[in-house]
# Entry
Amino acid sequence: MNIDLIPLSKLIPSPANVRKTGATSGIAELAASIKAHGLLQNLQVRPAEGGRFEVVAGKRRLAALKRLVKEKAIEKLVEVPCHVLSDEDAGEISLAENFMRLPMHPADQYEAFHALAESGKGPEEIAARFGCSPATVRQRLKLASVSPRLMKIFRAGNMDLDQLMAFAVSDDHAAQEAAWFKQPEWNRDPATVRRVLTSAHVEATDRRARFVGIEAYTAAGGPILRDLFAEEHEGYLTDPTLLDRLAVERLEREAETIRAEGWKWVDITPDLNYAALRDFGRVRPEIQPLGAEQQAELDRLNAAYDALAEEHGEDAPEPVTTEIETLADQIDALSQGTPCWRPEDIARAGAVIGIGHAGKLTVERGLVLPHDMAEAREQGDTVRVAPHGGNAAKRESGELSAALIEDLTAKRTAALRAVLAGNPDTALAAVVHAMALPLFYDRLGAESCLSLRLDSTELRGSAKGIEDSLAMQAIAEHHASWARRLPESGEGLWAWCLAQDTATRLGLLAYCAACSVDAVRKPHERGDTIRLARSDELAVALTLDMAQWWQPTAQTYLDRVSKKRILEAVAEGVSPEASENFAKLKKDALVAHAEQRLAGTGWLPALLRSPVMPDGEIPAPVAAE
# Structure
């Protein structure tokens, strides 16, 4: 072999080099390696015109050397060791060098980084020597700490790189191995591995963590586990007991302020459940109008909000977006006015304090315990809206016979109907008012003069985990949005409805109507009920596409039906050939493969498909599967 030292300035790329794809990738990393370790492999060259030499094999090394010249890391006239080819076919030599090259196995690479770290080199130094970022070095070092048993499985090709990275979320080899060997083969995907290894931890996005604050948690000695392979993930709090204690301690401090207001009782409920609050009665405060100083502050906040929104529009940078959101919260808080509680209400009602959405402190005042509600009804002061006509009407009604009272009120009702029928705007306000009362205010005061009844069927008993679904999250967002806009007291709802424009009233009407939809088929019900048929009509009118709200997963469908149903789903959603290929799999493996292949196909079971109907026809409900 003829090895010569040739000046870099005389080396040029050769058209005979067979590497075309990826020839320019990774040049920076290669340059860093050459700078740190020298040129570890000679270039293959052949003589060219003008005393120059074509680089037949080593195109990327040549580019890396020229990059180092531009960076002034090496001299332009540096001499490069080259194997000068004579009569050999240049294309064949280039092909042989590139084809026979065996890339380093990732496991060997990770362990090599680990050995460098053990020798005293830090992530920054290793990164500089190999042309990668310190974060990349830390990731590879983290992978080197995975259980040797699991690394052996990875080396054998029975585990992919994504799975290996998932194990790096924990340093506990025993836990890592349990997350692999104690899981069925079909349930070893990276998400499941991470979930198993962090099941005892609390995510940093948990509302308890938001409420306590990461700084307070770490200051109290709480450890945090970071997932180096999920850059946007904020980490896991590994001491939930400490987190719960810190949350309760802060709630206790906040509760002292609430108790000082004089309430009959104050309860701390970290996991505030709004459904449980429906069992309480409520008393409402009077809202004091804004004073001059408060109004001036509100005007200032509105002006600042409008100026930022006008200047930056919808594409505001993150700091500006945060400032706009803060201004919006301040405007909302100030716009609600100052609540003023009557002393007698404070004496008989209480408050619940807990952790609300996004970890915000939430206080529900004016709650009346169920066993106190009977006494409140006897006293007649739970609902403060006086009957029509006030005290004079009470005295007059006591002097009239029951038959006459019924006669007169019937005629008044007829008149109300006649006038209301010709006034659609007021009718819309009355309907919205009647529907919104039971949704947003306590039951004792949720009574309208319209005989409209809105029932919102509880869905959690029919579908486990439905509260985490996209649809229920969207409903919760709708409810929270309207709750922020509505008056705090039910007594103010009527005036509010009258003051709104038609678009606002229609929007609230749509939400209230949505809460009343009941298309659940209970076990005792037939599939041909009119109610279910009407739900199909509604789905067609709304062009409902359940594929946007539901996916066929093991939990939602596949684990709960027979192999025959799963194969039918694959045949419909993927192809008959795929169904035939899966037919011999066991149930667990079939579920895993079917879930993967059906993802994103839009396949739906028949019960979730919206029927296509001719105008005026009522669809026949789909039979149970």
